[in-house]
Amino acid sequence: MSNTSQTVSFDLPAASPAPSRQLARKTMKHRGFMIGFLILLFVGLTALFAPLIAPYDPYRQDLLARLAPPVFLGGDWKHLLGTDALGRDYLSRLIYGARVSLLIGFTAALISAVIGTTLGVLGGYFGGKVDAVVMFIVSVRLALPATLVALAVVALFGGSLTVVVSVLGLLLWDRFAVVLRSATMQVRQMDYIAAAEVLGASLPRILFKDVLPNVMNQLIVIVTLEMAHAIILEAALSFLGLGVQPPTPSWGLMISEGKEMLLFESWLITIPGIALFILVFSINMLGDGIRDVTAPEGRN
């Protein structure tokens, strides 16, 4: 008798990539996210290194070179985007204006996120009377038109950068509260929340370790939306003369200063207007991309 040996082979399933790698791969493939991210990265780096990039001091006046047209309209390469009515280099003011827009947008969105997230998470987690109080506060806020209130407050206290940021931050938190309240109510019903409560976990531990990480994607998306909203409101206030005050370079203020020359030197409005559109567009594209990439139904 001969013993026949047989080799048994087992086909092991291929190890799936780590969730972080899957997320990174999906992010790189999302065209809208990458477009928004790259544009915002370019604007952010330009604003950060403005002193090294700007060819001139944005406050320097040269009345002999006032209203010089940009290069694409036959101007001199000495001033690539021309000069304004006071002879200040338009490219330099545009670069420094990106600093103002990003600073106001990010800071106002951060203040709003802290206020709205706190109210939304508390209302959604506790429910009952706490939720009723939160929704009453939200209803009061929604009854106040943000633009009109901002105009009134800035007109009353002045249009400094600090006042504008504070006003916008205190007016744009309602969307955070509503969205995060709804998201927290859904998370509140999960088994791991009940398990943490049974095990005696403290309230701060449950809120910061179990609730907030599971509503973070909604929070990030709302931050991007409100950042774009704050930039638009700041530009509107500056255009009306109640936002950032001269000579601080602001895209809204540049549009306001150029409106008197609209029929003769339309590029004074077109250039900062296009810059404002591109910045807001990139932030919205980034927010939409984050929503698509992090949505549970879009995960593998």
TrEMBL record:
SUPFAM superfamilies: MetI-like. CDD domains: TM_PBP2. The chain crosses the membrane at residues 33-54, 100-127, 148-172, 220-242, 262-281. It comes from the Bacteria. Keywords: Cell membrane, Membrane, Transmembrane, Transmembrane helix, Transport. Residues 98-287 form the ABC transmembrane type-1 domain. GO terms for biological process: transmembrane transport. It is a multi-pass membrane protein. Signal peptide: none annotated. Pfam families: BPD_transp_1, OppC_N. It is found in: Cell membrane. One of its GO terms (cellular component) is plasma membrane. PROSITE patterns: ABC_TM1 (PS50928). Belongs to the binding-protein-dependent transport system permease family. This is Peptide/nickel transport system permease protein.
